[in-house]
Amino acid sequence: MTERELKAKTKSIAVAVAKLCDTLPLNRINNTYVAQILRCSASVGANYRAACRAKSGRDFIYKLQIVEEEADETLYFLELLAEFNPKQKPSMRIIYKEAETILKIVVASIKTSVARLDNPKPKTQNQK
């Protein structure tokens, strides 16, 4: 997946979560969880964009780790909202799968980036 595609996918998750939250009934439980999920789902995309502008490999990894945390938090709050809004579970399941895909991509990217930092390619004669 390209950087552009992942930026679009992270934005689409934030929009889908916001639209979902807009359909939920207002009550103490939903209001509390909605406030949290709106922040963390939007933070996934915002922090991914920041990672794309990272100043170094280590900075990139650090920022991707924040994306990982926010994506996982989004999954958690979707699970909680599903417990209290069973009628919305089908639409939540779709968002959950998309967020889970993003999480898997980010975790794989972190592992790849760490491996590259730990084992840099030796320079060839032409690169010297």
Number of H/I helices: 4
Structural class: mainly alpha
- Let me know the average pLDDT: 95
Q: Per DSSP, what share of the residues sits in E-state strands of 2 or more residues?
A: under 5%
Query: C-alpha Rg, in Å?
Result: 17 Å
* Basic shape: elongated
Give the total of beta strands: 0
Distance between the termini: 32 Å
Indicate the percent of residues in helices: over 70%
> What's the SSE pattern?
HHHH
Biggest pleated sheet: none
State the low-pLDDT regions, or none. Answer: none
What would the keywords be for this entry?
single chain; about 130 residues; mainly alpha; 4 helices; about 0% strand
Descriptive notes:
There is one protein chain. The chain has 128 residues and is an all-alpha fold. The chain has helices at residues 3-23, 28-52, 57-84, 89-118. The longest helix is centred in the C-terminal third of the chain and has 30 residues, at 89-118.
List the helices and strands and how they pair.
Layout: H1 3-23, H2 28-52, H3 57-84, H4 89-118
Helix pairs in contact: 1-2, 1-4, 2-3, 3-4
Brief description of this entry?
With 128 residues, the protein is mainly alpha-helical.
